[in-house]
Amino acid sequence: MSIQTISTTPFEGQNPGTSGLRKTVDVFRQPRYLENFVQSIFDSVEGYQGKTLVLGGDGRYFNSVAIQIILKMAAANGFGKVLVGQYGILSTPAVSCIIRKYQTFGGIILSASHNPGGPDGDFGIKYNIGNGGPAPEKVTNAIYAQSQVIREYRISDAPDVDLSEIGSVQMEKMTIEVIDSVADYAELMQSLFDFQAIHTMFANGFTLRFDAMHAVCGPYATTIMEKMLGAPEGTVVNAIPLEDFGGHHPDPNPVNARELMDYMNGPDAADMGAATDGDGDRNMIVGRHIAVTPSDSLAILAANATLIPGYSKGIVGVARSMPTSTAVDRVAAALKVPCYETPTGWKFFGDLLDDNKITLCGEESYGTSSNHIREKDGIWAILFWLNLLAVTGKSVGKTVHDHWKRYGRNYYSRHDYVNIDSKGADGLMNRLRSLLGSLKGKVFGSYVVEKADEFSYADPVDGSVSERQGIRIFFTDGSRIVFRLSGTGTVGATLRVYFDRYEKERLDMDMQTALGELVGIAGKIADIKAYTGLDEPTVVT
Ligand code: G16
User: How many domains are contained in the chain?
Assistant: First the structure.
């Protein structure tokens, strides 16, 4: 075994977006592409010599090749140890959990999250820091800057390591410890939730359908739901992780988890349905004939937190990403705790959690979590709901309706215009920007614009400022339309338009009917058709 120093030249565009570097598999397979980015990570952080790195991914195509390369590069760069998931598998929340439990230097997660996988799909790589959370912008900016000037990388010529057996092997001076992918995470869940109460609920006939979407949560959900909590075998469906997620889009929303939605709207529906995404950080909660919006889910968890053992002492504050509905704001006001509004991207919650300003946080994009780790956490959210139902004895639907009765309802929807021309998308945003000063007071049908602005965020902990985080149009009745471009796509641009309308009394309108007028107004103000070339959004959730 020897350490090689290989000359290289920079690749354009190795710029981590909302959540790590995401590109098509084709791009990642180019010689030196992955190596350049990994070396740029190592070159951008200091003090890792002899320290421990956590490494794992969601099992998608190219995961197993990338893991071996990264192990050899970690050894060549002087890490003391790598904790790697068996078969190279670790969910994103599990990586965060393991970094924190063993106080490691950081971790690398291989995933493109909810993006499709397989040879024609996407791949991704994300660096998490010692608090267990995604690297903040100052770090990702440094990685990008380094990737643009890189001249060489270091790699060991050691042979590939067998990751199928739990145990330790040596590579150069570094120890590689192959760990059980599920055990540490399952133990953490057990410390937060009343497993006995959930076990009893299952024993009394409660039914759950957990759609793991052929992604990373299969083994986690099978161990926790079926083995530890006693749910019947078969509760977890699509449980075997596949390199191409069975050809599906592993994104737990009513559109991509169609199979689950049909089941939950059918005659044999379970008491609760749930799904998780490619890397296990997103979740969707479904009741019989009702899909809970992620924004409502966050609000409901916050309102009921004291019923859960891990949060029985109450919550210190909450946070949501800006486009997420304001449902949780009302809960925070009732609880008299602060509610922070951050840009889209889980990394923005890290400081607030570390500084103990918040206990729970969430996003409209099917992510919810708490201070137990520094990532969003799909199985955690599902266990929270199960624990809640076990304590209250209510159904999912009744829980949601009772919440609306008390706090009012946010009708909420997101329209995505996917893979559109980048120039058109930038043109649309620039034009909206130019209109901001002139929208106030304008009347559109029954809506009057109260104010319009572009969201900018000053982190209350470290003072760093993130600008251009979405254009917001507020109306006098409290409704909002938000426009922003996605930071996770790999082809062209994706325009997201978010609609949020609050109703205190009328709680049972059809969602798209309730939002229809706002949808028309958005199309008109932003001239969406002209800029995107699309008559209709590609995906509506
Ligand atoms: C990532 C981020 C989330 C963000 C989501 C969508 O999730 O961690 O914070 O809400 O992308 O971002 P965008 O609207 O920019 O596409 P994940 O699950 O993809 O890692």
Answer: 3
